[in-house]
Structures are given as C-alpha cells and as structure tokens.
Amino acid sequence: MTTHSPIHSKNTPLYFELRKDILFQITSITAKSSTFGRRFNFSDLMPIFRLNDNELIFPPPYLAEPGGLLAIGGDLQPERLINAYQNGIFPWFEDQGTFFWYSPDPRCVLFPEEIRIHKSMRSIFNQQKFHYTLDTCFNEVMRHCASSPRSDQEGTWIGEDFIQGYTQLHQLGIAHSVEVWENATLVGGLYGLSFGRIFFGESMFSKVPNASKAGFIQLVTALQKAGFLLVDCQQETNHLLSLGARSIPRETFLDYLQQNPYYRTLIGKWSFCPKEGIQCSPQSS
Question: Distance (Å, rounded) from C-alpha 196 to C-alpha 253?
C-alpha cells in the first residue's frame, strides 16, 4: 500500500554549474535570512530541480542540497501544496514569480507531550490575560504574519500568492489559524496545516509580548488532547527551542509521514474543546 502521494524523481535537474545566474540569484536571496545559518558554498552544490508546471510532482526529499533547498518553480495551488506537505516539503519564499521548495535536514519538531511552559507563561494563563479562538479570521492572521518585522530576516516570504494559496487550503478545511485576543483586539496568532495527526506550523505574529507564545502553547495543549503525534516547526529558532522543540533527522520525520495517512484528518472548521482539545465542524462556504 502506497502511503505517500506520488513523488517523481525524473524531473529535469537544474544544475548550478550550468546556470550561474540562478546560483547568484538564489545565493543573494538566501543570504538575506539567517534561518538556515549560512550562505551557500560552491563545494556544497547539488542539483536543484525545476518543477514541471503541468505535473504536481516533486523529487525525493533526500536530494535536497545541504541547506534544504530541493526545487524551484511550480505554483501554490492546493493540490501541489498538499502533495508537498505530505512528503516533507514546503515552500519557503518566492522571487519574481518563482517559488523555492525546501526539505531541511535535520527537521525541527515539537512533540506535544514535551511542551515547555515556563513560570512566566503559567502566570499569563492563570491571569487569563488572553483568550483564544480557532479559524475565525484566517486571512487576517496571515496578513499580520506577513507584515510582522523579524530580527533575523529582511522582508517576508508571505506574499499575495502565499496568502491566496493557503486561504484556499483554509476554505478546504485543511489550513487553520489560532487567534489570540486581548479584550476585543487581535494581538497575536499563528497558522498552519493539519494532515492526519501532524500539525505543520507555518508562521506566527505578536502585537504584544508573549501573545504568539501563549497561542502556540494553547494550540499544542489542544493537539495533545486530540492525539496529535507532533508539530512540524521546520527550522530551529530560539523561540521554538524555549518551548520544547528539538531537531530530528529528516529520515525520522519522513517515517512519521509514512504512518500519518492511517490517521483521520480533521477536515473542517476547528474550535477549542476542553475535553477533546479540538472540535471539528463542517467548513462554511
């Protein structure tokens, strides 16, 4: 029984040695962010695959270059995004209409039972400083994530194509948002995708201190009650490590993905439920 969506390994490879213009372009873009911690080295060069716009297929993740870059091209239509995430691949940014697809090794994840709630955060929950909702304003959460300044990068990878693509997944009941409210004001949040018993986190924002951290803890606590196996955090950050995230080999992460299709995906509109963690209802049109 095939547990993965089809991955095709016969894409025409785009070799950096033959396309120095692409190499310099990618090097320049990637150097803007310290997420992966280093620039590309010529000694690290591996084939980067150009996706076929007419086929929703990806090369195997193990062919990614050392920084995680696997392929360029394609689009963000729902079918391609679903295929990507189910196989451990995600789009990180776009430049002049070209999308860049990653599968980093190692992979940063958080096992829900390992969530770390520090004393300062316990105080915030005890004081009921915030209240939390799910799936009430997905598009607004994405736009806040896009506009939030980040100390480790210039600009944002969340452009209009990203917002449109993930909003379509939200309308399909696959992408979800967490909203953090202070009184009636949206002060924090995050969004991601859910397949089986894995939540794939994408981005978060805070307008006031600790808002996104509180929203993340609220979500992970609910996911644990709902029986989720792990939260995909993609890449290490000090913020995520402080909450209990850790890195595992990509091969181990892909093993979890191979088992994931055996679990039912909670498709629809989510809400927090004290007993089951996550309550799922049909998505309104």
Answer: 14
